[in-house]
Amino acid sequence: MKTTFLRTVAAIALLGSAMAHAQNYPTRTITMIVPFAAGGPTDTVARLVAQSMGNTLKQQIIIENVGGAGGTIGAARVAKATPDGYTLFLHHIGQSTAPGLYRKLSYNAIDSFEPVGLITDVPMTLVAKKDFPAKDLKELLAYVKANKTKVTYANAGLGSASHLCGMLLQTAIGVDLTTVPYKGTGPAMNDLLGGQVDIMCDQTTNTTSQIKGGKIKVYGVTTKTRLASMPDVPTMNEAGVPGFEVAVWHGMYAPKGTPKPVIDTLSNALRTALKDPVVKQRFADLGTEPVADARARPEALKAHLKSEIDRWGPIITKAGQYAD
């Protein structure tokens, strides 16, 4: 009886402490981990959202770029962080593909984190170097099939959005391309711009300005319908690759055990940020838009993450591309 009583008292004390913490939260600077290099598309999304959320929370949110191993190094750091709301994690679709791509993870993609909410679904574009000979997707596919040993496909590394899109493309057209992995989207795009590699599939947040500037060619977008920001660019489906749809969604997380009142505060701040006219306009400039309010909630991100893990697992297994 005494032991049970003491445990109850301790539990009440912990609950009271958590509630007091949540009522005062936040009282200092928050760190948001982005598991990729600065300047990439996920980093861009994070900085836009962090600025607006910081205004709502009345505390600065600083971005810390912890790149490497397809985002798993940054994820592992967050999974081990103190669950007090002062360490956040913003990751893209790679959070759902890591369990399939990596045989050994020091964390569980679902159980090691508290979801805060979805942020945006970023379309992807199939692009090529400026002087690539094909004038449209039909010609590109024919050229690739005829020159599959010569055509080089760039990606930002194992587990990156460009890697995943490339796997889908090669599966869809039944061709194995010479893949050139880079340590990030920036170096991959630089070599595409310089003509060192031929084609690439990447997020509109990274390709829109290059496309509009005429520095690279674009052959299709990976959405069901054409993009308002690039109305002349056909979807992959209408251009010759039926059913080819992929969006790079971004989600925000906190370490497992972060008090629910803190998660609620963060979720509210995120949803406010996604309604911010400045954020919405910047997203539009990059060819994307914030998710609907109902999807920017913890339960929506948790359900989406589970469904995406189920979706990508078989695709990765079929491709046979793993990392230790």
Strand element count: 9
Question: How many domains would you count in the coordinates?
Answer: 2
Radius of gyration: 21 Å
Helix and strand sequence: HEHEHEHEHEHEHEHEHEHHH
CATH architecture call of the largest domain: 3-Layer(aba) Sandwich
Structural class: alpha/beta
Give the N-to-C terminal Cα separation. 50 Å
Mean pLDDT: 91
Helices and strands in order, then pairings?
Elements: H1 2-24, E1 30-34, H2 41-57, E2 61-65, H3 72-80, E3 87-91, H4 94-101, E4 113-129, H5 137-146, E5 152-155, H6 161-173, E6 178-181, H7 185-194, E7 199-203, H8 204-212, E8 216-221, H9 236-239, E9 247-255, H10 260-273, H11 277-285, H12 298-319
Parallel strand pairs: 1-2, 1-3, 5-6, 5-7
Antiparallel strand pairs: 3-9, 4-7, 4-8, 4-9
Helix pairs in contact: 1-10, 2-10, 4-12
